[in-house]
Amino acid sequence: MSVADTPGRVRDWLIAGSPVLLALALGVFPLVTLFVESIGPGLGGENYAEVLSPLYRGALLYSIGVGVGVTAVCLAVAYPITYWIAHRCPDRYRLVALVAVTLPLWLNYVVLNYAWVWILARGGVVNRILVGSGVLDSSLDLLYNNVSMGIGFVYIYLPYVVLTMYVSMERLDYRLITAARDLGASDYRVFLDIVLPRTLPGAAAATLIVYARIAGAFATPEILGSPGNIMIARLVVQAFRQYTNYGFAAALSFVFLLLVLGSLALGALSPRVRRELRQW
Amino acid sequence: MHALAVDGLHKSFDGDPAVDDISLTVPQGEFFSLIGPSGCGKTTTLRMLAGLLTPDAGRVMLNGEDVTDRPARERETNTVFQDLVLFPHMTVAENVGYGLARSGVTDPERGQRVDDALALVKLAGFGDRDPADLSGGQRQRVALARALVNDPTVLLLDEPLASLDRTLRDEMQAEFRRIQRDSDTTFLYVTHDQESAMSMSDTVAVMRDGRIVNAGPPRQLYTDPQTQFVASFLGDATLLDGEVTRHAGPDVVVKTDAGPLRADADAASYAVGDTVTVAVRPEAVTLGGGGLTGTVVDIAYKGFYEEAAVDCNGTELVVRRERNTAATPENATSADGGTGVPFRVGETVTLGVDRAILVENERR
């Protein structure tokens, strides 16, 4: 009897195989259904043709743009924060600092958005302070524009970026920074030559996690964004709910998925990023 | 003018002095070693010389210029770190050329100087490799080239050989010495390994508890150490306390538990009746003859020689004897102390001491 036939081996395969199968089914099956729906009825491409009309094209590009911009801001904010926590913060405050930064993760997503409505509204905290202290005569319109939406996005997604970046930043060997300084590197060169390349995997991972979710977000643009700037999620929801045009909604989702994958691939084309990603 | 001059350097951590009034001068082109046990403050001193740590007091001068308040990147010093810390995401050539690039040396010249530096450390043609693909010794050479290529006023080396095995360490020591001579660079080498420091250096300074206790050429420190700590840190030595019983000219006779020992009195003067400490090196102890008698309590085979610890009235002296390779316990026919016959534990031997060294005892 060969080793592979022993009952233990079969059980091992079942134990390892079933979750893998489950993961594959959960990941791939809905996508396949969605795709089949998008090309129907009757294998026509009309759903896709409509997606590429100027109205929807604009919303797609705007969503991608918001995704890129907010991700960039999150990374720019997360770099100094994680550098400080990993290399400057005294050991005993490190956990406290990490928890403080990632606190929003434990609150409901919609509640987080409404917290900013509260803060930025005409009668909100910021306006009351500004008017009350005499800086302003009357309240400002701080809500329902790209800035308020951007603040909400950064607030909600920053914890994910910080946690992912922190792992990379902690693994950054501080002695490399010392060596670079000894060889004459300024702070700017230290960041460019040592910190950035050594933490690029973390930045790439953070981008993978948050970028698509920001570009496809529904609640934040609805609650904090300008009603005139339509992001893709609202169009998909409308197609599903109001027009019950499932095929079109599915096609829209698929084109969006391709755009997200395409833009990520574009980022991976940079030789520097590729060199760092090879380490994975 | 000295390549490096340090005057009254102090550094405390949380009130504990790590470096306590260090002053030293290193002439251009010298191989200077700072040695001492772990925690003696030698690495702290090196970090202050590199500009990676700010001293509490004191001055650091490079080529006569006060650089005490300049950070590392504005100093004409470069460091070979203990763990080398080569940049893992850069090629060997990029590593070596990094300092040149930061000081604005552009490419035809930079490439040439990188090639020259790699040739100097015998790594010509390795420029395109990744540091991870190199052996331990090769990485040492890259780290050395990366610092050396910038032509620093002083090259600082922080125990770079500590992680190597013995064979490779011996080889790299010879290489460091050759490269130091060929490049005519001033080296300041920090280590706890007295053997490597002695074999490479022009000058050795022994540190203890944040201070330099003795400095000079290795030979002088070995043959005439000032204190009992230096005597036992540099090589093997038995330390004995005793009383001066005779003092005639340069000769002093010290009565110790093991018996009377003759020592050279240096500049310091001693009076009969003084309590002193003497150090006895194993090579000063001869077998047979002499006035001391003792019992062999321990033997150690060391290859071409054999070492015996001999108990003389409660004090252990170490004696060495070259081994005749033809003699083995089996064919030895006499045990009278003649050459080639192994020591035996329990054997009674007579010893002579050519010369003991009078040392200060800092424990008193």
By CATH, the superfamily of the largest domain in chain B comes out as: P-loop containing nucleotide triphosphate hydrolases
Number of strands of chain A: 0
Query: For the CA atoms, what is the radius of gyration of chain B?
Result: 25 Å
Q: Which architecture of chain A would the CATH scheme give at its second level?
A: Orthogonal Bundle
Number of helices of chain A: 13
Task: Give the oligomeric state.
Answer: heterodimer
Helix content class of chain A: over 70%
Mean pLDDT of chain B: 87
Query: Which strand order spans the largest sheet of chain B, edge to edge or round the barrel?
Result: 6-7-8-3-9-10
**What is the count of structural domains of chain A?**
1
Low-confidence stretches of chain B: 330-338
What's the short version?
Chain A is mainly alpha-helical and 280 residues long. Chain A has 13 helices and no strands.
Structure description:
The complex is a heterodimer of chains A (280) and B (364). With 280 residues, chain A is mainly alpha-helical. Chain A has one domain: MetI-like (MetI-like fold), CATH 1.10.3720.10. Chain A is 77% helix and 0% strand. Chain A is built from 13 helices and no strands. In chain A, α1 (7-39) crosses α12 (246-268), α5 (109-120) packs across α7 and α11 (232-241) packs antiparallel against α12. Chain A is globular. Chain B is 23% helix and 37% strand. By secondary structure, chain B is α+β, with helices and mostly antiparallel strands. Chain B has two domains: 2-230, 3-Layer(aba) Sandwich (Rossmann fold), CATH 3.40.50.300; 234-359, no CATH class. Chain B is built from eight helices and 19 strands. In chain B, the strands form four sheets. A six-stranded mixed β-sheet of chain B has the order 6-7-8-3-9-10, with helices on both faces. Chain B is elongated, with a radius of gyration of 25 Å. In chain B, 40% of the residues are buried. The A-B interface holds A 173, 175-176, 178-186, 189, 193-194, 197-198, 275-276 and B 50-52, 71-74, 77-79, 81, 83, 85, 87-89, 98-99, 102-103, 146-147, 150.
